[in-house]
Amino acid sequence: MPYENLPGFTTVLRDNRMFVMPETLAGNESILILGTAYDGPVGVPVRAGRIDTLERMFGGYTGDAAGATLIPAVQQAIESGASDVRAMRVSGEYATYSVMDTTEVAEEIIVVRGRFPGTKYQGVKVTADATSLTITNLNDEPSEYTLSEYDTVGALVNAINSETGNDASAVVGDDSAFDTSLSGITLAEVTAEELTGGSTGINVSQSSLRSDVNTAYGLIEDYEVDIVVPVGVYLTYDLEDLVEPITDSDKQGVLDLAEHCYTASQRVGERHGVIGVKPLDSVTLGSIASLADALSNNPLEYEHSTMVDDDGNPIDVGKFISIVCADTVFDSNRAGPYISNGAAAYAGLINTLAAESATTNKVVGSALGLAYSFSPAQLDSLTEARYVTFRGKIGRGVVVIDGITAAKSGSDYTRLSTVRIVNAACNSIREVTQPYIGEAGTPYHFNAMSTAIESVLSAMQAEGALQNYRFNILTSPLGLARGEATIELELVPAFELRKIVTVVTVRATLN
Questions:
Q1: What is the rounded end-to-end Cα distance, in angstroms, of the chain?
Q2: Is the pLDDT of residue 10 over 50?
Q3: Distance (Å, rounded) from C-alpha 348 to C-alpha 352?
Q4: Lowest mean pLDDT among 18-32, 68-82, 85-99
Q5: Radius of gyration over every alpha carbon of the chain, rounded to an integer in angstroms
Q6: Does the CA dihedral 151-152-156-158 come out positive or negative?
């Protein structure tokens, strides 16, 4: 068999049979896209409805916003069929202007800054005299604030922040000054000074973006979402150094995502990450071959930097992520065709499928094509190294070669469908057992808990996600004293069909 790891169609001249999986209901995972934008709040998840509405908030991705990754990625996920997508901007700095008083030693009263981080708000103007402050928005419409109408610095700040039309917000440089009285304060005179500084956070270095994304991970550890896609953070490589092309630094962004998904899975519920391989800078036959060699000849393992299992071994967090290696062509009504990594589109595809329905051989609906194609042998090698790849098929479009995770080779969790089935079971059990937390550890409550678990698992079996299951609720006097119970769960998932073998028998006649 020429490509033993690559799903496909193989003909073997011997007797055999084949088994076909039943179809069930689609999935309903939520997706959070992390990326850069020209405008909008930083660190705030926003549910995506209409793309044009989202563009008005985050500023699009053409002109001054060229290079912004958030809106295109959200569009890719939605056009792949995702029904629950959230967007979160991860970077940017405010344009500011410091309003001073006129004491013997000039002191900063407040800092006027743009409504959101970015250079867009450098056009906001600040005017001040002794007793009033005026902020003129980007449409040259002034908003005046008379000091005598506010008791404290904090009251003035709140008034500025509550008025959305002034394109500005305000903060105090020192939190202790929030309750400072405005009585007796005389502002330094200012005539239409524009805000200065600020940045969009677009087109920054990989290390800078990774730092911003790690900050975002901290914010969403307790946020309920199923799939996280950091756009613009990649598995990197150096094609000029084929001796050791993948280093710990190259994989750090991927490991950060894997560790985040592990931590979030312990805190709020199972979470899976999807991340891409850095796009090729120059597409040639040589660079394509070098990329395939660099990735497939250096299979990576993603072990948690601090957490260990019961045997003292570092936890394999690769099972919590999928790494997409596919420079994909997409289309937009504003920028026309463009090339992007397929991570967000792949996450959108996952959202459309039932847990037991693998992404293997499924069409990526938002993709127009591929910037380049790997050969079957290269695809086979990349699949063995646990990378998700795409290939164009005539009459179908862009399809996924194999739905795998980055778990260690030989792990029970190398199949994404297996991970999703396990995640669905764990989430279902977590949901039905929550009502018993805080109740007495009596046989009555344990029997009721057992009935609830049996109900959700049997429903998954009826839908085709599970072939079989077994569970036990274990308690002990010491465990009950601590308020603890253990659910031991064994699952036989519905394993995906990956190959079809045609059995051919040659006869002289058929009776």
A1: 32
A2: no
A3: 7
A4: 18-32
A5: 28
A6: negative
The residue among 62, 72, 165, 58 whose CA lies nearest residue 116 is: 58
**What is residue 223's predicted lDDT score, i.e. its pLDDT?**
94
Cα 358 from Cα 343, distance rounded (Å) = 16
d(CA 273, CA 31): 9
Tell me: pLDDT of 468 over 80: yes
Give residue 328's identity as a one-letter amino acid code. Answer: T
Give the number of other Cβ atoms within 10 Å of residue 136's Cβ. Answer: 20
Give me the DSSP letters along 141-193.
Answer: -EEEEEGGG-SBHHHHHHHHHH-GGGSEEEE-SSGGGGG-B-TT--BPPEEEE
Q: In terms of residues, how long is the chain?
A: 511
Q: What DSSP designation does 196 have?
A: B
Other CB atoms within 10 Å distance of the CB of residue 394: 5
Ordered alpha helix ranges (H), 234-384: 252-267, 285-296, 343-351, 376-384
What CA–CA distance (Å, rounded) separates 483 from 225?
Answer: 28
Which residues are 399's β-sheet partners?
A: 363, 391
**Strand, helix or coil for residue 347:** helix
Residue 350: how many other CB atoms lie within 10 Å = 29
What digits encode the pLDDT tens for the residues 371-390?
999 999 999 999 999 999 99
pTM: 0.84
Residues 167, 121: contact at Cβ < 8 Å? yes
Beta carbons of 300 and 247 less than 8 angstroms apart: no
At a CB cut-off of 8 Å and minimum separation 6, what does 263 contact?
Answer: 221
Does pLDDT of 295 surpass 50? Answer: yes
3-state secondary structure of 364: coil
Name the helix (H) or strand (E) containing 426.
helix 416-433
Q: What is the pLDDT of residues 28-51, one digit of tens each?
A: 789 999 999 999 999 999 998 788
Distance (Å, rounded) from C-alpha 438 to C-alpha 441?
A: 9
Q: How many CA atoms lie within 13 A of 131 on its CB side?
A: 3
Cβ 322 vs Cβ 31: under 8 Å: no
pLDDT tens for each residue of 137-181: 999 999 999 999 999 889 999 999 998 889 999 998 777 778 888
β-strand partners of 503: 12
Tokens 């049979």, located at residue: 17
Please state, in angstroms and rounded to a whole number, the distance separating the CA atoms of residues 120 and 64: 9
Contact 145, 133 (CB under 8 A): yes
The CATH class given to the 22-90+203-414 domain equals alpha beta
Candidate ranges 115-119, 164-168, 437-441; pick with highest mean pLDDT: 115-119
- State the Cα–Cα distance between residues 349 and 366, nearest whole angstrom: 9
Q: What is the mean pLDDT of the chain?
A: 86
